[in-house]
Amino acid sequence: MRLDYLTIFPDYLAPLQLSLPGKAVASGLLDVHVHDLRRWTHDRHRTVDDTPYGGGAGMVLKPEPFGEAFDELLGEAGGGGEGVTVVVTTPSGEPFTQPLARELATRERLVFACGRYEGIDQRVLDHARTIAEVREISIGDYVLNGGEVAALAITEAVVRLLPGFMGNAASLVEESHEGGLLEHPVYTKPASWRGHAVPPVLLSGDHGAIARWRHDQAVRRTAERRPDLLHASAVTGEWVVERAVRADAAEILTLQLACWVREAVANDDLSIPPLHEDLATVAESLAEWDTYVVRVAGRLVGSVRGRLDGDVWDIGRLMVAPDQRGRGLGRLLLEHAQAVAPAGAASYRLFTGKGSADNLRMYKKAGFGVREVLDGPSGPAVLTKRITRR
Ligand code: ADE
């Protein structure tokens, strides 16, 4: 992965040469370039900022130095904007989260534009969007003096996800925010220290009991420290149903393709729409539908979505990874999709192929009835259920 940083304080980014990122640079996994934005100024004072139009306190970073920097780094000589994401660090950006780190880790190249003062002239971002993907990202609801520290934090979270970066990849799936929960407490030797004993279950050798204890601790900790994470999700045994975020789109698409091949076979119909969607369509649908996902060990293994049409709550794209079927996850997702229907909904509706026997069985068992079968190669069958509220 190639990383570029545009900053007026290049020294701030010296830590990139240290520790794990430093090693990754030495091993060739990362190609890091820190640029002084003043390189693209032409006046004696190497001016990068000016007063804001419309008045107000503070200074704004001028468009010209960024424009020339993008010309050089993202123009033809710089390899173009294909596969590049420009990350603009700003307190008014979208929140930086683990799913977003995972998404950025899939990019070939990241170009960080570090803000300072009151921010960067908006036209810099508008222009960059014509060349490459642009993400304005905040690392938290507080204001730093500039975007360099945020760029470092984002870099570290992204780079450690790159294949080959961490010595032990398993440690990536067992940590906080993977799976929607904070991590359970951890202990090492000695078994008793200054009168504090390690919880006996961890010494029991019973792996099932240890896994259950860790899960309980993770849920408890999350409830205490980050109830907002639990409100966004429903914790059910091993499964945590979370609201999907835009960064989940690629994994949802992959799961969708895997699931609808089976549907195509069951219905002898290759024209089923979910088999023909692309990443952009799935990403757009996340804005239009309330979409939920379930992860197991960090992997997205289930999803469902719902949307109100008049007083009908449409449920769709119920999917479970092939290796996770038969354990009740589909049922759980169906229950969840019903439970989140808004107050104005009077009935549920869903569609499935008329040849999808397993789906039809599950839906009927959940109280849905076939209302009609549409006239297509695979139907589909339209199933509905009246909502009864107690
Ligand atoms: N620049 C200043 N504050 C910031 C924040 N919270 N996140 C990202 N960039 C910033």
From TrEMBL:
- What are its E.C. numbers? 2.1.1.228
Protein family membership: Belongs to the RNA methyltransferase TrmD family.
Reaction(s) catalysed by this chain's protein: guanosine(37) in tRNA + S-adenosyl-L-methionine = N(1)-methylguanosine(37) in tRNA + S-adenosyl-L-homocysteine + H(+)
Its name, as the record gives it, is tRNA (guanine-N(1)-)-methyltransferase
* Quaternary organization: Homodimer.
Gene encoding it? trmD
Q: Name one GO biological process term.
A: tRNA N1-guanine methylation
- Role description: Specifically methylates guanosine-37 in various tRNAs.
Any Pfam family hit: Acetyltransf_1
**InterPro entries xrefs:** Acyl_CoA_acyltransferase, Alpha/beta_knot_MTases, GNAT_dom, tRNA_m1G_MeTrfase_C_sf, tRNA_m1G_MeTrfase_TrmD, tRNA_m1G_MTases_N, tRNA_MeTrfase_TRMD/TRM10
* A cellular-component GO term for this protein: cytosol
| PROSITE patterns associated with the record | GNAT (PS51186)
Residues at which S-adenosyl-L-methionine binds: 115, 139-144
- Report the coiled-coil segments: none
Species assigned in the record? Nocardioides marmotae
